[in-house]
Amino acid sequence: MTNPKRIRAKFQCNTITQTMGGRHREIQGEQKYVPEPVYTIEMAPVYESDAGKNAENKKFWDASPSGKLELQCVLKEVIEHFEVGKYYYLDIVEAPEDATKL
Fold first, then answer.
1. Which end of the chain is flanked by fewer CB atoms within 10 Å, N or C?
2. Which domain, by its residues, includes 65?
3. In a domain? residue 11
């Protein structure tokens, strides 16, 4: 994979929510269910009313007028990088089957 193709999308963060979930963790040699917060980010592509704000948004709207990204994460430090209402680029690049080839 010498020159991977990249697709770029422009999304807006619409919501960030926190719920309680949990994971099984090994504690003193035993698997135990540990409750912990789960953060969910919901994003959508720039939409038509955003397209009138600038030429870049119009280009993205013309290419991808609909969609949704929902990401769940248990790491609060990751969620702190996102803010509701802000725009983010999403770069999509095919991942090699064997990541050691990178």
1. C
2. 6-26+33-95
3. yes
pLDDT 10s per residue in the chain (102 long)? Answer: 456 688 888 899 999 999 998 888 898 999 999 899 999 999 998 876 655 667 777 777 777 667 899 999 988 899 999 999 999 999 988 888 876 654
Give me 44's structure tokens: 């959508």
Cα 27 to chain center, whole Å? 31
**Could you tell me which residues come within 8 angstroms of residue 69 by beta carbon, excluding any fewer than 6 positions away?**
11, 41, 42, 43, 44, 90
Residue 73 within a domain: yes
Does the residue 100 lie in any domain?
no
Which amino acid, residue 87?
Y
Write out the two tokens for 26.
Answer: 């090994």
In a domain, 102, yes or no: no
* CA dist., res. 70 & res. 16, Å (int): 10
Structurally, the chain folds into a number of domains equal to 1
